[in-house]
Amino acid sequence: MKIVRSLAVMVFSLAATASFAQKSDLGAWYMYFGNNKISKKFNLHNEIQYRNFNAGGDLEQLLIRTGIGYDLTENNNNILLGYGFILSRPYINGEKTENIEHRIFQQYITKQKFGRFNLQHRYRMEERFLQDDFRMRFRYFLGLNIPINNKEMLPKTFYGSVYNEIFLNFDSPTFDRNRVYGALGYVINKNMRIEAGYMNQIQENRNRGQVQIGFYNNIPFTKND
Predict the structure, then answer these.
(1) SS3 17
(2) So what's the pLDDT on residue 22?
(3) Dist. CA 19–CA 5, nearest whole Å
(4) End-to-end CA distance of the chain
(5) What is the rounded distance in angstroms from the CA atom of residue 12 to the CA atom of residue 198?
(6) What DSSP letter does each residue of 42-75 carry, written as one string?
(7) Structural element, H or E, at residue 12
(8) Which of 27, 58, 92, 183 places its Cα 20 to 30 Å from the Cα of 118?
(9) CA-to-CA distance for 183 and 161, rounded, in angstroms?
(10) Domain residue extents for the chain
(11) How confident is the model at residue 39, as a pLDDT?
(12) Which residue positions does the secretion signal occupy (predicted)?
């Protein structure tokens, strides 16, 4: 119970910090990630991200992604084909606007382990169908999870999480954005974990911070796993 209370305090503290978004330009992202086995080799990816300009109530973007993946080796080297629906509500000249994007993406994820260090590389290609445009983009993600109170990512383990992700357009300008992230996570059980942290997003003419709270669900949909 002490651990649950500690996590609750951390989550509410981050949300309270994000409530000053209008003054500090700090946003808040609330995220759910599902990666569920549907057979020994195939997995279902499902994801919802609710992104706000502040702690809540001023929606910046709603992102929903899903896809089917296949492990080239046992529980690793996953290739995936997916679809994303993105509703954006940016401010333009002080006025709230609304844009809808449909996105097809292909990705490859490979994982490596060096002692306590759990590395993940993700290579993603995106075909973006905007309301009045079509664009293509490449993304490279490098993530690292390090258990703190155990040597492995076992249940009841706290861990540190960091990542860097760069986005590159196929047209001009080539550089789209870069994200740098750091967080504290907790492994609830072998199939669920939670993270709370901070991400800084660097764009050509903008640098903005985001408080992030994420829940990860890997419960298999097959009895064999």
Answers:
(1) helix
(2) 38
(3) 21
(4) 29
(5) 14
(6) EEEEEEEEEEESSSSSSEEEEEEEEEEEEEEETT
(7) helix 2-18
(8) 27
(9) 5
(10) 2-104+153-161+181-217
(11) 96
(12) 1-21
